[in-house]
């Protein structure tokens, strides 16, 4: 802090009154420009990505138009392509993953941040960070060797017998399928939810807790009614991070989803996802239309991520306005 | 710190040696299936001709065709021959023709996991097509039982497993089914990826094998090399002469020899369901794609020299790596075709 003698740390309102040159001399302006360029690259990369996906799928877009989104056939032999089963698979597996991972992840985060002794919390956090760094192919192998046989021999019969009248639990089960992919994805995203949520919960000011306790609430009441609502925005953020990861996950999903483009209400049915089909077919895709249809799938995935992220932002805005009392 | 410095210096020195090596670099890209033998060949050939260095990237047949057509590599490699549209596209873009050179042969084998069945099962073409079309659904179907007298087949549903990734293995399998079943030909046809009527997809030979091992009553197809190297049991297939043949390298070469008479001059031919008493019916060539015209005379002579070596001495490396050798008839025909490269 070379300039600490002349400028306040909170330089915001002061900047206007100082000349550009003096700011340049202080280094503020240079730092601002450099960091601004860095920030701009993010926007630039996103725009480039969209441009590439858009221009390299022109052939497929003009040929299939909006039918691409409602066609179920994917047949490289007769050059007929539709994205619907892949979009369905991506959405269903991601939704299942969140359904499993969110309660588990947030529950674990609350324990680590609020209830566990600090030493236990830190040790566990170390393992959680480790889990987040495991490559996805390892989770895929875990799925293939442990979850797939478990699904076929234990979970499917267990759910099919009492609940088989529901379309969700209809057979047959091959072990691979939507639910298996959802479970593997859940295992993969739980560390993200725990890690981020724990940090957010830990950063809730101490006086919030003390105030609740002073008003006579129990430990759990202070956690559930004060601390968690205070940290809600951050926790939602961790969920969206997890969703983004689940939507785009490729390798682990390919290994356990069954790679069959089907739309079925049954969670035990094999399916396929956008990321998975691109990874499977891109290298051997001959023919311009085939390649472009795969690129268009990439564009669809990008749009889905974009829209879901937008909805997520909206959700944050709406819920915070309704006043859990947290201005962000 | 000192040790690191020495290491860095060593790496730099090695790099410098690499740069100083003025070998003529010839780049290729394409099929993954023949990659083990191609890398062996290019390595051996470089030892014999230190001034020539081949660099091959196994990016897949489709990418190989694309990169060769765009001229980003000097030659390509593919598991399925280029179709007429692709040939025309190459002609339009590069202003010359592209030549196919068969290098070695591969085969697909039917593999399965049927509880209680330990020996090799026999498959007729009708059974294979029926199973993959979803028409034969039980292991004790009379069509399967008829070809496997004395085997106790269970009354369980057959679970079909196929490749989920685009692959030359799938091309050979579907090409064979298209030849033996009109219904398959009209409904599904052949390709590196097809719209499968039934079944689960596994990524790569290992993915298919993994699914079959884990799923009782399943069946699928893998490359002969993969099955042989990993001791995966596989069945015999009835060939066009009516014999049940369990795939081995000799049977695959026999298929190529049986088809040799009808091989066109451009070598773009499928040898599935080939005639011959011992011919294994689900076999195929894999090809190098060589442009007919080279701008660079040095590269042209290097490629021609390599092709000649590959057809003679190079073939001796094939069987150790579980590839079937080219039969004599094909080798002679290819030697003549090398002269077309200008």
Q: What features would you describe in this structure?
A:
The complex is a heterodimer of chains A (328) and B (342). By secondary structure, chain A is an all-alpha fold. In chain A, 70% of the residues lie in helices and 1% in strands. Chain A contains 13 helices and two strands; from the N terminus they run αααββαααααααααα. In chain A, helix 6 packs across helix 7. The radius of gyration of chain A is 25 Å and the shape is flat. Residues 1-9, 11-15 and 323-328 of chain A have low confidence and may be disordered. With 342 residues, chain B is α/β, with parallel strands linked by helices. Helices cover 42% and strands 18% of the residues of chain B. Chain B has helices at residues 2-20, 35-48, 61-70, 84-94, 125-133, 142-147, 168-180, 182-187, 204-214, 224-229, 249-259, 297-311, 328-338; strands spanning 24-30, 52-57, 75-78, 98-113, 122-123, 159-163, 200-202, 218-223, 236-238, 244-245, 283-291. In chain B, the strands form two sheets. Chain B has an eight-stranded mixed sheet with strand order 2-1-3-11-4-8-6-7. In chain B, strands 5-9-10 form a three-stranded mixed sheet. The A-B interface holds A 73-78, 144, 148-149, 152, 172, 174-176, 254-255, 258-260, 270, 272, 276, 279-287, 291 and B 59-63, 65-66, 85-86, 157, 159, 164-168, 188-196, 199-203, 207, 210-211, 214-215.
How would you describe this structure in keywords?
heterodimer; A: 328 residues; mainly alpha; MetI-like fold; flat; disordered C terminus; B: 342 residues; alpha/beta
Largest sheet: spatial strand order of chain A: 1-2
What's the domain count of chain A?
2
Cα-to-Cα separation, first versus last residue of chain A: 28 Å
> So how many helices of chain B?
13
Low-confidence stretches of chain A: 1-9, 11-15, 323-328
Question: Whole-number average pLDDT of chain B?
Answer: 89
Number of helices of chain A: 13
Number of strands of chain B: 11
Biggest sheet record of chain A? 2 strands, antiparallel
Instruction: Give Rg of chain A in angstroms.
Output: 25 Å
Order of helices and strands of chain B: HEHEHEHEEHHEHHEHEHEEHEHH
Give the SSE string of chain A. Answer: HHHEEHHHHHHHHHH
Fraction of residues in helix of chain B: 40-55%
């Amino acid at each position: 802090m070379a300039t600490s003698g002349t400028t306040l740390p909170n330089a915001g309102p002061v900047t206007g009154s100082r000349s550009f040159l003096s700011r340049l001399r202080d280094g503020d302006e240079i730092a601002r420009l450099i960091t601004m360029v860095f920030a701009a690259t993010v926007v630039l990369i996103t725009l480039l990505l969209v441009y590439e996906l858009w221009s390299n799928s022109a052939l497929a877009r003009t040929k299939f138009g909006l039918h691409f989104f409602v066609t179920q056939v994917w047949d490289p032999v007769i050059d007929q392509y539709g994205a619907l089963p892949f979009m369905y698979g991506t959405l269903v597996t991601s939704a299942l993953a969140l359904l499993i991972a969110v309660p588990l992840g947030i529950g674990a985060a609350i324990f680590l941040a609020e209830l566990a002794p600090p030493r236990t919390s830190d040790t566990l956090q170390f393992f959680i960070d480790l889990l987040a760094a495991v490559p996805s192919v390892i989770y895929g192998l875990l799925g293939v060797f442990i979850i797939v046989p478990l699904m076929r021999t234990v979970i499917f019969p267990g759910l099919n017998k009492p609940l088989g009248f529901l379309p969700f639990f209809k057979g047959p089960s091959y072990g691979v399928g939507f639910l298996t992919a959802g479970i593997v994805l859940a295992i993969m995203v739980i560390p993200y939810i725990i890690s981020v949520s724990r940090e957010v919960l830990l950063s809730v000011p101490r006086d919030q807790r003390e105030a609740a306790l002073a008003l006579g609430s129990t430990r759990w009441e202070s956690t559930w009614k004060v601390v968690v609502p205070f940290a809600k925005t951050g926790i939602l953020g961790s969920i969206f991070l997890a969703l983004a990861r689940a939507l785009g996950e490729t390798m682990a999903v390919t290994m356990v989803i069954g790679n069959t483009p089907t739309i079925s209400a049954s969670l035990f049915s094999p399916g396929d996802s956008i990321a998975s089909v691109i990874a499977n077919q891109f290298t051997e895709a001959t023919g311009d239309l085939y390649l472009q249809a795969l690129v268009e799938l990439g564009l669809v995935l990008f749009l889905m991520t974009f829209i879901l992220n937008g909805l997520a932002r909206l959700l944050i805005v709406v819920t915070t306005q309704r006043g859990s009392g947290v201005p962000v | 710190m000192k040790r690191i410095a020495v290491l860095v210096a060593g790496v730099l020195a090695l790099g410098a040696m690499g740069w100083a090596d003025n070998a003529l670099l010839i780049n290729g890209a394409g099929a993954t299936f023949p990659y083990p033998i191609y890398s062996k060949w290019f390595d051996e050939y470089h030892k014999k001709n230190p001034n020539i260095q081949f660099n091959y990237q196994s990016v897949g047949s489709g990418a190989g065709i694309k990169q060769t057509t765009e001229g980003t590599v000097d030659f390509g490699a593919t598991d399925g021959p280029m179709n007429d549209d692709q040939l025309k596209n190459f002609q339009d873009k590069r202003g010359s023709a592209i030549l196919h050179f068969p290098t070695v042969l591969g085969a697909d084998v039917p593999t399965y996991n049927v509880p209680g069945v330990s020996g090799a099962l026999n498959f007729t073409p009708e059974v294979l097509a029926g199973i993959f079309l979803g028409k034969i659904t039980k292991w004790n179907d009379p069509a399967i039982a008829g070809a496997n007298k004395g085997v106790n087949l269970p009354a369980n549903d057959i679970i079909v497993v196929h490749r989920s990734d685009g692959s030359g293995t799938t091309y050979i399998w579907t090409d064979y089914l298209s030849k033996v079943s009109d219904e398959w030909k009209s409904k599904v046809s052949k390709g590196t990826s097809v719209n499968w009527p039934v079944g689960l997809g596994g990524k790569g030979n290992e993915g298919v094998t993994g699914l079959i091992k884990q799923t009782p009553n399943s069946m699928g197809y893998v490359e002969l090399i993969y099955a042989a190297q990993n001791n995966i049991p596989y069945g015999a297939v009835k060939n066009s002469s009516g014999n049940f043949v369990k795939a081995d390298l000799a049977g695959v070469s026999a298929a190529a020899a049986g088809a040799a008479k009808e091989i066109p001059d451009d070598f773009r031919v499928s040898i599935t369901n080939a005639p011959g008493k011992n011919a294994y019916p689900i076999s195929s060539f894999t090809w190098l794609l060589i442009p007919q015209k080279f701008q660079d005379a040095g590269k042209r002579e290097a490629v021609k020299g390599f092709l000649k070596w590959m057809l003679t001495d190079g073939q001796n490396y094939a069987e150790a790596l579980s590839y079937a050798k080219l039969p004599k008839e094909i080798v002679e025909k290819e030697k003549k075709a090398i002269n077309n490269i200008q």
